[in-house]
Amino acid sequence: MITVRTLVVDDEAGMRKSIARVLSKTVLTIPDVDQQINFEVDLAADGSEALAKLKSNQPDLLLLDYKLPDITGLEILDQLTAEESEMVTIMITAYASLETAVAAVKNGAFDFLAKPFNPEELRSTVSKAVQNLIVARQLKKLARERHQVRFQFISVLGHELKSPINAVEGYLNLMKSKTMGDDIESYDSMIDRCLVRTRGMIKLILDLLDLTRLESGSKTQDLCTSDIRDIAIRSIETMQPMADERGIQCVLHADKTIDLYCDSGEIEIIFNNLISNAVKYNKDNGSVDVYLDKVDNLITIKVKDTGIGMNAEEQATLFQEFTRIKNAQTRNITGSGLGLTILKKITALYSGTIKISSQPDQGSTFIVTLIDNIDNEENH
Ligand SMILES: Nc1ncnc2c1ncn2[C@@H]1O[C@H](COP(=O)(O)OP(=O)(O)OP(=O)(O)O)[C@@H](O)[C@H]1O
Ligand SMILES: [Mg+2]
Asked: Which domains does the chain have, with CATH numbers?
């Protein structure tokens, strides 16, 4: 239940009481808001009492008479608009003219009610005002959250780039002071470390670019029907050298064409992320099995590995930017922690889902479903 704190300002006692009676018995439901709304009503009989109450404890909703004994409702509004406020105001007037309506709206009123009005008119005007209040609050909350997410993202990104840059700087300083003598070959391992760290930073930046392109929606999709088995084969070939180095077998299981109306670059990113993880987080001499299937327009991509696996707690942290599970087994594995975030964004473009089942030390299975939207192709 959301309680809307309401202040009714009118010099006629009968009017104040009848508004209070109607509102205190009213329970509203508003589209897209799953909670019911009720009212807590306070009253003020003149301008100075109203101003005192507005200053000490601002309500959510103000029902304000246009004509008060000491100052006009418009003057009260004028004093309030200077302050930043979420309150919504409904002006009550016995002199409903276009002029007063314009003046009231100009001074920040949301709507106005012409006297005399019946309970139904009151409820309907109040309902619109409350809807406006709740939408404004939701927008504000969203803006705050967005700001926080952006801030968090930048701070994590800074942190992710800081350690490789520090490492490269450290090695360069050692080389500059010729710690290992004049023979350039003595520095080979330092140079190799620098290259590994630089490559890591380049990958992070390329992943970030993919992610921002996906998020901004600025990248136009290059759509056509592709047999995604070919994309899976290409992706396995790309990972083959990394798998061979550790004796890992990658096998594709797909006995029919799997057509998908898609941007093949996006599907390749899905395979690359799933298969690179299945190889990276595998054990030496392990295996990676890629299964593809299509039933009606539902495509299933299943990537099963025999790797280090994850416990339930670790699985719950996935799909957030820069999430990397830190333990003894992952310590020496490099990555930007953006792969699964990108995978999730692309999967959403195909109305898909991602399911994981994983056991520590046994392996993980990632199941991605995608919808083949053939209707789109026909409209294209
Ligand atoms: N198949 C898997 N088996 C075990 N752990 C996995 C597997 N796939 C992902 N993870 C865990 O999830 C984390 C996040 O994966 P993600 O692909 O997003 O990032 P990454 O592999 O660390 O970096 P990159 O951006 O280079 O892909 C990994 O760091 C790893 O700890
Ligand atoms: Mg990855």
From this structure: 2-142 (3.40.50.2300), 221-379 (3.30.565.10)
